[in-house]
Amino acid sequence: MTPEINLKTRELRANPYPTYARLRKESPVVLYKHPIFGKTYYLTRYNDIVSSFTDPRLANDRRNVLEGKKDPMDRWWVPKLFRILQNNMLAKDVPDHRRLRDLVHKGFTPRRVEEMKQAVERIVSELLDAAEKKPAVDLLADFALPLPLTVISEMMGVPEEDRLTFHRQMGGLLDNLTTPAGFLLQTPNAFNMMRFFRKLIRLRQTEPRDDLLTALVQAEEQGDRLNEDELISMIFLLLLAGHETTVNLIGNGTLALLQHPEQLQKLREHPELIGSAVEELLRYGNPVDQPSPRYAREEIQLEGHVIPKGATVMCLLASANRDESVFENADTLDITRKPNRHVAFGMGVHYCLGAPLARLEGTIALQHLVRRFPDMKLAVPAEQLRWRGSIGLRGLKALPLLLSPSGAPAAMREAA
Q1: CB count, 10 Å around CB of 226?
Q2: Domain tally for the chain?
Q3: Which Gene3D superfamilies match (predicted)?
């Protein structure tokens, strides 16, 4: 019998790793009764998760396994926005997935991302200049969020005045969609986001620019390659993936370094380790706990467990990245770890399109932060930190820091 787990407890959100370790030892598959999708089967071991990324028995598009059954997302209380989001490329199988991915991949190639390095450096410096003037900061609100939000918004052509509003709406959706009541309560939020997306589309139809959103709109107009639902879901996905992962990489990564001062000191003394440090912080901090769901095309037998045909299957990336059979001293932060075969960005055809951008932003952000504030420390006890309610993304609600020993702004210290 497949054991069950409750992924929503505060204890599990604060520190899921002991539970994940027990599950890897006792069961490669664990059951979670999702309030929307029903029985959901979670994979816990690295090798099973890696294999699942290329397993032809698993589909990304739920409609390919329904066989006439009603889609859970078609219920009356599910806002239209969420039905539309089923058209995003993460929820597609080939060839539809390739058609959608080809529309945007040129905006995220390593070469294109490298060209953005100077802009990222500038934004990081400006944000840290402002942070240095404060006695204390919330690293997420003052630094980790505005950096990637600014970058992806400029890439997409989102007006500056709309960016924070969009992020707040996005956060409300991600953190509260765990029950039918949560869906209903988010209906006004979903309506506002639909209006926001349509506003962006109209804006770029009438005022085209050299940005990714204009390219998507023109692709729709010129070749009917994107219908409106696909266009809306693509905008949502790019804006979401374009900043949420990086926010958590910077936030979780900074917390991990502060909780492992010997690793923080090593990074300060050897800044050339920043590349391997970012990879280790991705593995150790797990900004994405689980990727988009997949669905069993047929009954799957896995080490004594049966995953029924049509069932929802999820991968616990955070469990895979702490699997002791793959990573030596898996629960130890080691910024020199090599090789580091983490799966923080997934694998296979659905490998995270924005991985090069997230790596660039995380590298520059952490490099400057560590060098510029050698005395930074938590402004509250670690046990007072709270994690967000989303079970897909793993991130803090806030990360209060003192950037200097006294907590005084740099200008005040210099004047003294």
Answers
A1: 21
A2: 1
A3: Cytochrome P450 (1.10.630.10)
